[in-house]
From TrEMBL:
<dbReference type="InterPro" id="IPR000847">
    <property type="entry name" value="LysR_HTH_N"/>
</dbReference>
<keyword id="KW-0804">Transcription</keyword>
<dbReference type="InterPro" id="IPR036388">
    <property type="entry name" value="WH-like_DNA-bd_sf"/>
</dbReference>
<dbReference type="Pfam" id="PF00126">
    <property type="entry name" value="HTH_1"/>
</dbReference>
<keyword id="KW-0805">Transcription regulation</keyword>
<dbReference type="InterPro" id="IPR005119">
    <property type="entry name" value="LysR_subst-bd"/>
</dbReference>
<comment type="similarity">
    <text>Belongs to the LysR transcriptional regulatory family.</text>
</comment>
<dbReference type="GO" id="GO:0003677">
    <property type="term" value="F:DNA binding"/>
</dbReference>
<dbReference type="GO" id="GO:0003700">
    <property type="term" value="F:DNA-binding transcription factor activity"/>
</dbReference>
<feature type="domain" description="HTH lysR-type">
    <location>
        <begin position="1"/>
        <end position="58"/>
    </location>
</feature>
<keyword id="KW-0238">DNA-binding</keyword>
<protein>
    <submittedName>
        <fullName>DNA-binding transcriptional regulator, LysR family</fullName>
    </submittedName>
</protein>
<dbReference type="Pfam" id="PF03466">
    <property type="entry name" value="LysR_substrate"/>
</dbReference>
<dbReference type="InterPro" id="IPR050176">
    <property type="entry name" value="LTTR"/>
</dbReference>
<dbReference type="InterPro" id="IPR036390">
    <property type="entry name" value="WH_DNA-bd_sf"/>
</dbReference>
Length: 300
């Protein structure tokens, strides 16, 4: 039994599909299937059962999983030892909600790759919590600290949000007053697709429903930028939306936090520890830089 077979086994166990494992491992699904069949022949046991929900581990597969994960950790440690003097290389996959993924992580990835030319950064933007147990990412950024799972959690940075609208909308509809918000077209989240209580912004404004809604922060911002209405936006996103202005900033101001989350099994990985420290420092600096630009624009 070689490490490459175990690597493919872990890919199927975490993605619960041959095609999903193939995408992550850069091979076609039929090859993944043949390699799993070869591994099952080598161990003399069926490791997966195909269900309507995907490929699930059998009891024999569950017994193999800890050994495969231990082999993975050993392989990572060996790669770190070999590459320590040459800078950090390989792949880093970061999962994040789409506001962070769109407006902050591209700059973080730019600076990481500049510092470590051999590093490949993947940004996974998901409208839900990233599942580190299934290894959807190497680390995740969350808007509230997870309460379950074998995870290591680190507070990253506070950030602020305000009501905002495009200057064209404001020119058409006049002054915005808090006691008159209901007469405005409000933009926000689809209520039953809010995956974290920290994203329930509108409840803090007194407005109960949104006329235009999306599960994506970026779509909401584009609607606001198009002059479609008023919505809660991240201050760090405002510099990317010319013409969008904060409104009622002295009356409605929200504060939230980003958290960096890693799987507990990775706490001894020097490579991931160094990368998590770099991500944390770069993200804090970028939040501060963009919020400063938004504040300067509001004061102008």
């Amino acid at each position: 039994m070689d490490w490459d077979d175990l690597r493919i086994f872990l890919g199927v166990a975490r993605s619960e599909s041959l095609s999903g494992a193939g995408r992550r491992l850069a091979m076609d699904a039929s090859t993944v299937g043949r390699r799993i069949a070869r591994l099952e022949a080598a161990v003399g046991a069926v490791l997966f059962v195909k269900t309507p929900q995907g490929y699930r581990l059998t009891a024999e597969g569950e017994r193999l999983l800890p050994a495969a994960e231990a082999a993975e950790l050993a392989a990572v440690a060996a790669a770190e030892a070999v590459g320590r003097e040459a800078g950090i290389t390989g792949q880093l996959r970061i999962g994040a909600p789409d506001g962070c993924a769109n407006y902050l992580l591209p700059q973080v990835a730019r600076d990481l790759c500049a510092a470590h030319p051999g590093l490949e950064v993947q940004i996974v933007a998901l409208p839900r919590v990233v599942n580190l147990t299934r290894r959807e990412a190497d680390m995740a950024i969350a808007v509230s600290p997870p309460e379950t799972g074998r995870l290591v959690v680190q507070r990253l940075s506070d950030y602020r949000l305000h009501l905002a609208a495009h200057e064209d909308y404001l020119a058409r509809h006049g002054e915005v007053r808090r006691d008159d918000l209901r007469r405005h077209r409000v933009i926000g989240y689809i209520p039953d697709m809010i995956f974290d209580r920290e994203l329930d912004y509108l409840s803090e404004t007194g407005v109960e429903t949104a006329a235009i809604s999306s599960n994506s922060v970026s779509v909401q911002m584009q609607a606001i930028r198009a002059g479609a209405g008023i919505g809660i936006v991240h201050d760090f996103a405002i510099p990317f939306a010319p013409g969008v202005r904060r409104v009622l900033a002295n009356q409605i101001s929200l504060k939230r936090s980003f958290w960096l989350v890693r799987h507990a099994d990775d706490r001894n990985s020097r490579r991931l520890t160094l990368l998590s420290e770099a991500v944390a420092a770069l993200l804090r600096a970028e939040v501060q830089r963009l919020e400063s630009l938004a504040a300067a624009d509001a004061a102008a």
